[in-house]
Amino acid sequence: MSLALYRIDDRLIHGQVVVGWGQPLDVSFIVLVDDEVSSSDWEQDLYRMGVPPQIEVIFASVEQAAAQLPTWEADARVGILLVGDIDTAVALAGCAPQVKRFNVGGVHHRTGRTERLRFVYLTDDEAAKLRQLAANGVDVTAQDVPTARAVPVGEFT
Amino acid sequence: MSELRGVIVSHAAVAQALVTAVTAITGIEGVLTPISNEGCGTEALGERLRQAVGAGPAVLFVDLPGGSCFTSSARYAKQGGAEIAVVTGVNLAMLLDFVFNRDITPAEAARRAVDAGGKAIRVTSS
């Protein structure tokens, strides 16, 4: 079935991902792409604690993820791929042509960001990067939970 | 020993509701601080924790054993500097026990909370 969701979420693995998306998609594995987490055993243990034992959690750097994407896409199980920020999404899409879509699921307030949606705050630079990602052929939408409307990138950037 | 405080970290308004319930039952105020992850990224939740915990010592009562409330709390406990313990699966029973038993270390209070909270979970057959 492959990766059913490519998601940008600064909370990475949390309830909305594991339960909100994980249950309806019947997810069997989660790929967390983050250079920092992929090199920290302690952080990995922390994120694993939020996931039921039947769901496999895979940690990867951007480089490792780009190399492994064909394998994950060919997996018979359903998976979710997570990145924590827009730069990581852009970096992954730049070196992995298999990336055809990104769901902006949660980018929260920080200095310099303005509210675009209740769960999406972006700097102008981040908004421009998402528009460029879309211009490069990646389907970019914002949607926090499966029951919400997928908001096209043009409506929030 | 500085006075031990409790910080409840939850999704939505669960933490605030638990504090309200503890006060309604015991009349004790100012011991528990509620924090919600509503609208928070990791950074903002860490800041809320820093403000709530202060110089510590404290016990962080978290709603779920995973997710943003838990990861932020565990990370804060490791990096925050104050003497902090983290307990997951917060319920009213453990908080009621906590507010009356705070002359102990955070680690001891955390163990008490697991015991008191766990004993409150029962199946009652008709």
Can you describe this structure?
- The complex is a heterodimer of chains A (157) and B (126).
- With 157 residues, chain A is of the alpha/beta class.
- Helix content of chain A is 34%, strand content 27%.
- Chain A has helices at residues 15-25, 41-48, 62-73, 86-95, 124-135, and strands at 2-9, 29-33, 56-60, 78-83, 101-106, 114-117, 120-122, 139-142, 151-152.
- In chain A, the strands form 2 sheets. Chain A has a 7-stranded mixed β-sheet.
- In chain B, helix 2 (42-53) packs across helix 3 (68-79) and helix 4 crosses helix 5 (106-119).
- In chain B, strands 2-1-3-4 form a 4-stranded parallel β-sheet, sandwiched between helices.
- By secondary structure, chain B is an alpha/beta fold.
- Chain B contains 5 helices and 4 strands; from the N terminus they run E-H-E-H-E-H-E-H-H.
- The termini of chain B are far apart.
- Chain B has helices spanning 14-26, 42-53, 68-79, 92-100, 106-119, and strands at residues 5-10, 32-36, 58-62, 84-88.
- Chain A binds chain B through residues 10-15, 18, 42, 46-47, 49-51, 106-110, 118-119, and chain B through 11, 39-44, 64-68, 70-71, 74-75, 78.
Task: List strands and helices in order, with pairings.
The complex is a heterodimer of chains A (157) and B (126).
Chain A (H helix, E strand, L loop, with lengths): L1 E8 L5 H11 L3 E5 L7 H8 L7 E5 L1 H12 L4 E6 L2 H10 L5 E6 L7 E4 L2 E3 L1 H12 L3 E4 L8 E2 L5
Helix pairs in contact in A: 3-4, 4-5
Chain B lengths: L4 E6 L3 H13 L5 E5 L5 H12 L4 E5 L5 H12 L4 E5 L3 H9 L5 H14 L7
Helix pairs in contact in B: 2-3, 4-5
